[in-house]
Design brief:
The structure holds two protein chains of two kinds. Chain A is an alpha/beta fold. Chain A is built from eleven helices and 14 strands. Chain A folds into two domains: 263 residues, Rossmann fold, CATH 3.40.50.970; 34 residues, no CATH class. In chain A, helix 1 crosses helix 6 and helix 2 runs parallel beside helix 4. Chain A starts with 27 loop residues before the first helix and ends with a strand. In chain B, helix 9 packs across helix 10. The longest helix of chain B has 20 residues. In chain B, the strands form five sheets. Chain B has a seven-stranded mixed beta sheet with strand order 11-10-12-13-15-14-21, sandwiched between helices. Chain B is built from 20 helices and 23 strands. The mean pLDDT of chain B is 96. Chain B is an alpha/beta fold. Chain B has three domains: 222 residues, Pyruvate-ferredoxin Oxidoreductase, domain 3 (3-Layer(aba) Sandwich), CATH 3.40.920.10; 186 residues, 3-Layer(aba) Sandwich (Rossmann fold), CATH 3.40.50.970; 107 residues, 3-Layer(aba) Sandwich (Rossmann fold), CATH 3.40.50. The chains are: A alpha/beta, B alpha/beta. Strand 14 of chain A pairs antiparallel with strand 9 of chain B.
């Protein structure tokens, strides 16, 4: 008889013995906690799980996980995980990145990872600032942002990461925030279940260099009117009492009061509708200004598409079928030989 | 008609990219090999893909050296130059020996072709004295080819494509060769187009018979079989040999081969070869850029694959940070640099050895990497295999340097048997048992090598990263003492590889003497040939050739100390010489050529004589 393991797996089992060194109050702590919690809920095999990161505050993440891990090079996480998954499709691979890491120095690798649809979970901690280099604007900082490197305000137009991921043909695009553990966990579960590159943007507060960047979206008083939580098959409703809705007319989304429209006119979220997902991710108005569209959260888009490493594998299998098992001596000999006697 | 016996002959075929020059040269090569000649070849492609027809930029060349003696280079200068048009003559006449034979397709010297080759209006090199002192055979290849196939029913465009067969047939006649091998080739190549089999064979024979009947030709030549070690041989190109060496290492170790790379001249052929051999389980990953090429490979190595990345100088520059990371990770990784002319984009289709410093020192921080360099096309096989061995057995990134000259060049290679290939020792760390001590990912063995613990192994979960690591746990460490210790250990680990490589040998000549020609990389053939010539002339000269550049073989100092003079020929501005002077305080002299071209034997002979006074 084999011994049955009865010990309940807990989030702590996924914490490494290293001290966590993020600044006290950093949003990263919440994300670490939720990820460890989700690992426990999924009962992930630690020995089969790899966390890979680039460089930046968020990228210290793998050191804090008691799984296999790799803290790699700034922006290159997607390349490392691609090679790892192609070599080892059996592994469960997560990639941790930030707005500078994924969208600035690693922008190229990021879009190609999504296009290839390698089966990894990408968590992008977006704090709209460079933290580890002490406070320069990032590719997601809003225009006009005053930082150490932009004393007169940034003149860069910011990226909208979810739109970018969708534009790069990502097969799973979602957004959540550090201050909403429940929704984050739900999304992490879905991301893990998706076969292909699961992209999750996580709004994360940097309390040192960009404190409050997302407060209009995360704080009790402003959150209901500024945010929209989408669920497949459910109408797009928001507001304190879900009294507001989105209707889509002639490809233009508009905010209406629920009681002013017929229920059938309200946009029903379809996670498989790419065109509508594109419109949804373009809800990107500044929440500090009145009259804009709410910022959406949840899984925006999901599709089943062939997974890159499976393609690599099946091509090899097919080739073995056609050409037969490898014969090194045949290869060494080549097609044309001659003999010297 | 006379029949002259020759020890060695160099033929240079040159024409438009579309003239089938590479095929013609390749066929003559195969036939020479079958006859038992020693051979060495070098193709010369234009940098542009389809440069305008008839222009100098569009000239493609193929140099073939064959002989009844042992050959180590594709030949300094050609005995015979075959030119299909005016541009081909213009760009290659310099490569012909004084008094050599020029075979001219006069159809390629009409007004239009002369103008495209930028000859002055109204002048032609065929009549203005340019070719004085050479033996010229003018043939209207185009006309005779069309005449031969006038009843074939084929259009002129298709007919003209077989012009190269006429030239080949004519040269077969000149060198007393049989047509069988090429006829067989034509039959296979056009198996689905019988009309082309017939037409190409007809033109090949027409070329052969032209030799018989044309009265202008005074003599035929014969090159007897060379005294080559009995065995089975094949012709092999450098890049092909590299690819096969990598697959052989993968098969011998049982590790899956992963090649993450990005296309770049002249390295892309390695990717092309590897991507064909999927039934060997080879995984090729054409990444989005050079950086992703190496980073994906490191990811694969972490997962337990045999990771290889291929590139040339500019690509290697982009890979620098990742090479440093692989050094800190202490994971096996093979980095192949098929060197080309630099700096920057430089001379993509020309050869150079100017990336040695880049391989040795081209990274931030203290980042030692073993470096080995192949000496000839066939040696690319040995050293690709060897690079894998060192990477795996010493858990380190390894540089393999080749260059455009040997990557595209070819020579006969005695076919190896897989059972005779050396073993490579692969040890993955074993799953942790309950009573095992704590797993220490950076704990080293006597070679200073850490364990290769791949994800999926029970109980060995650990984290690696680019931040300085604690010397045993591998955890992040900012401790000053630890950093110095780690820098020294990583250096010592690479240095200790010297215990696991062969001693430096004298390639040719005595163990001591007046002059040591001390070479590395693709200069091997020219230096060896030069040394043999110098010894024949009575000079006290020896040749030592280095394949292991970092670390150098342990007996290097001893070898160098036994010669009055040391000359280091390099296709760069003096790189290996600086390393040798630095390590051994030897007053070595440099012989440097930076023209994108390999050394001619004569250049080395001259320098040796100059040093010896």
């Amino acid at each position: 008889m084999t011994e049955v393991k009865t010990k309940k797996i807990s989030a702590k089992d996924y914490a490494s013995d290293q001290d966590v060194k993020w600044c006290p109050g950093c949003g990263d702590y919440s994300i670490l906690k939720q990820v460890q919690g989700v690992c426990a809920e999924l009962e992930l095999n630690k020995d089969n799980t790899v966390f890979v990161s680039g460089i930046g505050c968020s990228s210290r993440f793998p050191y804090y996980m008691d799984t296999y891990g790799m803290h790699s090079i700034h922006g290159r996480g997607p390349a490392f995980v691609s090679g790892l998954k192609v070599a080892r499709p059996d592994l469960n691979v997560w990639m941790i990145t930030g707005d500078g890491d994924a969208l600035s120095i690693g922008g190229n690798h990021f879009i190609h990872l999504l296009r290839r649809n390698v089966d990894v979970n990408v968590l992008l901690f977006n704090n709209q600032i460079y933290g580890l280099t002490k406070g320069q604007y990032s590719p997601t900082s809003e225009k006009g942002k005053v930082t150490k490197s932009t004393p007169f305000g940034s003149i860069d137009h910011p990226f909208n990461p979810a739109s970018l991921a969708l534009g790069a043909d990502g097969t799973f695009v979602a957004r959540t925030m550090d201050r909403d553990p429940k929704s984050m966990r739900a999304i992490l579960h879905e991301a893990h279940g998706h076969k292909g590159t699961s992209f999750v943007e996580i709004y994360q507060n940097c309390n040192i260099f960009n404190d409050g960047a997302f407060f209009p979206l995360t704080e009790r008083s402003t959150k209901p009117d500024n945010t929209l939580f989408v669920q497949h098959g459910q109408p797009l409703l928001f507001g304190e009492n879900n009294q507001k809705a989105i209707v889509l007319k002639d490809f233009t989304p508009t905010v209406v009061n629920v009681d002013e429209v017929d229920e059938s006119e309200i946009w029903i979220h379809d996670v498989h509708d790419r065109v509508k997902a594109s419109i949804l991710t373009r809800f990107f108005d500044d929440p500090r200004e009145d009259g804009g569209l709410p910022r959406p959260f949840g899984v925006f888009y999901q599709e089943e598409r062939h997974v890159y490493e499976n393609g690599v594998k099946s091509q090899i299998e097919k080739h073995i079928d056609v050409k037969g098992s490898p014969d090194l001596d045949d290869l060494l000999e080549g097609p044309n030989t001659w003999s010297i006697k | 008609m006379t029949n002259e016996i020759k020890d060695e002959v160099t033929i240079l075929f040159a024409g438009d990219s579309g003239d089938g020059i590479q095929l013609t040269g390749g066929q003559f090569t195969d036939t020479a090999a079958l006859v038992g000649n020693d051979i060495s070849t070098f193709p010369n492609f234009p940098a542009e893909i389809r440069a305008p027809q008839g222009t100098v930029a569009g000239v493609s060349g193929f140099q073939l050296h064959f002989g009844s003696i042992q050959l180590y280079t594709p030949g300094d200068r050609a005995d015979v130059l075959v030119v299909m048009n005016a541009a081909a003559l213009k760009s290659n006449l310099e490569s012909l020996k004084k008094g050599g034979i020029v075979i001219v397709n006069i159809a390629g010297f009409d007004k239009k072709n002369l103008r495209l080759a930028k000859y002055e209006d109204g002048t032609s090199p065929l009549t203005d004295g340019t070719l004085d002192g050479y033996k010229i055979h003018e043939v209207d290849v185009t006309k005779i080819t069309r005449e031969t196939l006038k009843n074939s029913g084929l259009g002129n465009k298709i007919v003209d494509r077989s012009k190269n067969m006429f030239v080949l047939g004519f040269l077969y006649w000149m060198y007393n060769r049989k047509l069988d091998n090429t006829i067989r080739f034509i039959e296979t190549k056009f198996a689905n187009k019988p009309e082309l089999i017939e037409s190409n064979i007809a033109v090949l024979k027409a070329g052969y018979h032209y030799g018989d009947t044309a009265e202008a030709i005074a003599s035929r030549f014969e090159v007897k079989p060379a005294n080559i070690k009995p065995g089975t041989y094949r012709n092999i190109m450098g890049n092909q040999a590299t690819a096969i060496g990598l697959i052989a290492a993968s098969q011998k170790t049982g590790l899956e081969l992963f090649c993450g790379t990005y296309p770049i001249t002249p390295a892309s052929d390695i990717l092309h070869f590897l991507s064909k051999y999927k039934n060997f389980g080879v995984k090729t990953f054409q990444a989005e850029d050079e950086i992703a090429g190496i980073c994906s490979t490191i990811g694969a190595s972490f997962g337990g694959a045999l990771g290889v990345t291929t590139s040339s100088g500019p690509g290697i520059a982009l890979k620098g940070e990742a090479i440093g990371l692989a050094g800190v990770f202490e994971l096996p990784l093979v980095i192949i640099n098929v060197q080309r002319g630099g700096p920057s984009t430089g001379l993509p289709t020309k050869t150079e050895q100017a990336d040695l410093f880049q391989a040795m020192y081209g990274r931030n921080g203290e980042s030692p990497v073993p470096v080995i360099a192949a000496q000839s096309p066939k040696d690319c096989f040995n050293l690709a295999f060897e690079a894998c061995r060192i990477a795996i057995e010493h858990m380190t990134p390894v540089f393999l340097l080749t260059d455009g000259y040997i990557a595209n060049g070819s020579e006969p290679w005695e076919v190896q048997k897989s059972e005779n290939l050396p073993n490579i020792d692969v040890k993955f760390a074993k799953p942790r048992q309950d009573d095992d001590p704590e797993f220490l990912p950076y704990k080293r063995n006597e070679k200073l090598v850490r364990p290769w613990a791949i994800p999926g192994t029970e109980g060995l979960a650990h984290r690696i990263g680019g931040l300085e690591k604690d010397f045993e746990t591998g955890n992040v460490s900012y401790d000053p003492e630890n950093h110095e210790k780690m820098v020294k250990i990583r250096q010592e680990k690479v240095d200790r590889i010297a215990d696991f490589i062969p001693d430096q040998e004298i390639e040719t000549g005595k163990e001591s003497g007046d002059l040591l020609l001390y070479s590395w990389g693709s200069t091997y053939g020219a230096v060896k040939t030069a040394t043999r010539q110098l010894i024949k002339e009575g000079y006290n000269v020896s040749h030592a050739h280095v394949r292991y550049l970092n670390p150098l073989p342990k007996n290097t100092k001893e070898i160098l100390s036994k010669f009055k003079h040391v000359v280091i020929p390099e296709m760069n501005n003096g790189q290996f010489i600086k390393i040798v002077r630095d390590k051994f305080l030897v007053d070595a002299k440099g012989l440097n050529k930076i023209k994108g071209l390999p050394f001619a034997t004569e250049e080395i002979v001259q320098k040796a004589k100059e040093v010896l006074g």
